[in-house]
Amino acid sequence: MTVMNETLTMQQALNKLIGGESLSREEARGVMDIIMKGEATGAQIGGVATALRMKGETRDEITGFAEAMRSHSNQVMTESSGLLDTCGTGGSGIHKFNISTASAIIASAAGVRVAKHGNRAMSGKSGSADTLEALGVNISLTAEQASRCLDAIGICFMFAQLYHPSLKHAAGPRRELGVRTIFNMLGPLTNPAGADRQLLGIYDRAKTETIASVLGDLGLKRAMVVSSHDGLDEISISSPTQISELSDGGVHTYTLAPEDLGLRTHALSEIIGGDSAVNARIIRSIFEGREFGAYRDIVLANAGACIFVGGAAASLREGVEAAGTIIDSGLAAAKLRQLIETTGELSHVS
C-alpha cells in the first residue's frame, strides 16, 4: 500500500529543516504551494529560505519548489518540443553585459525556436528585460501575444513579473534577507512556455550537476548548466568553465576552456557592461559587426552553446562557428529588428 505524504505546515517544514533534515519532493512542492497562495507569513518564508540555504538545497527540494511555482504561473501555450531558453541565476557580483540576451537572438537567427524568460535587474545593473526595453523591444506581451510572436518569428520574450504573479508573496522576505536563497535558482527553472532545452548559468559551481538533474526531473530533454571558474554564470572566455550537460536522460560534467571553442582568452574586465543603455549599445555593436574583441567572443561562446543545445549544430565548436556566421551575415541584426517590429505590432493586438 502506498502511503501519501501529508502536506507539512510551514512550522513543521521549518522544524525539519532546522534539524538538518531534507524535504521530500512532495513536501517541498507543498511548502512552495503555501507560499504561492499567500498563506505563509514573511517570517516563515524567510525562515524556510534561510534554513534551506544553511542546510544546502537538495535536488528534490529545488524540483518541488519549481514544480509548484510552474503550476501558479501564466502559461504560454505553444509547441514546447525543441524550444530553447537561455538565462542565468545572476548573483555573480560581476556587472557584465546581457550575454544570454544577445545569445538568444543569435540562436533564433540560426533557426532555433527561442522562448526567452527574464526579468529586470536584481543584482546587476541591467537585467534582460531592461536591456531589451532599451533596444526597443516591447517586453510586456501577454501569454497569448508571446505565443503569436514565437509562432511568427521564432522567438519571444516573457517578462517574469507578468508570468509569475504569485511570486510577489516572497518579494518582501527576499528583499529583507538580502542574501542568495533557493528563490534565486527558481526563475531559470520555471519557463512559462515549457521549453525543453536550456542553457542555464549558475553562480555556484558546486550545484551544476544538481541543477542539471533538476532540469531532467522537470522534463527537459537537453540542457547545459554552466558556471565558470572566475565566477560567471556564463561560459567564460577568461577562465575554464564547468559544464554539466543533460542529454539522453543522464548528466555528465566536464571543463571547457576558451581555446576548446577556438576563441581567445580575454581579461574578465573586458566584458564588463553598464546600465541598460550601455548594454544595448554593446549588443548593437556586436550585431552590426563593429566589435571583434571580448564582447563578441563571449557572445560567440554562449550563442554557440545555445545553437548546439537547440539542435542546430553537431558540436559546441560548430555552434560557435555558426554564431559567427550569423553575426557576420547580418542575420542577428535582422532578427533583432524583427523582434522589435513584431512586439511593437502585437502591443496593439488584444
From TrEMBL:
Its cofactor is Mg(2+). Mg(2+) 2 binds at D233, E234. It holds the Pfam family Glycos_transf_3. Mg(2+) 1 binds at S100, E234. Residues 83-332 form the Glycosyl transferase family domain. One of its GO terms (molecular function) is magnesium ion binding. It catalyses: N-(5-phospho-beta-D-ribosyl)anthranilate + diphosphate = 5-phospho-alpha-D-ribose 1-diphosphate + anthranilate. It is an enzyme of class 2 (transferase). Binds 2 magnesium ions per monomer. Its EC number is 2.4.2.18. Residues 11-72 form the Glycosyl transferase family 3 N-terminal domain. The keyword Zinc does not apply. Gene3D superfamilies: Nucleoside phosphorylase/phosphoribosyltransferase catalytic domain (3.40.1030.10), Transferase, Pyrimidine Nucleoside Phosphorylase, Chain C (1.20.970.10). Keywords: Amino-acid biosynthesis, Aromatic amino acid biosynthesis, Glycosyltransferase, Magnesium, Metal-binding, Transferase, Tryptophan biosynthesis. Pathway: Amino-acid biosynthesis; L-tryptophan biosynthesis; L-tryptophan from chorismate: step 2/5. 5-phospho-alpha-D-ribose 1-diphosphate binds at residues 88, 91-92, 98-101, 116-124, 128. Homodimer. This is Anthranilate phosphoribosyltransferase. It comes from Paenibacillus lycopersici. The lineage of its organism: Bacteria, Bacillati, Bacillota, Bacilli, Bacillales. The gene is trpD.
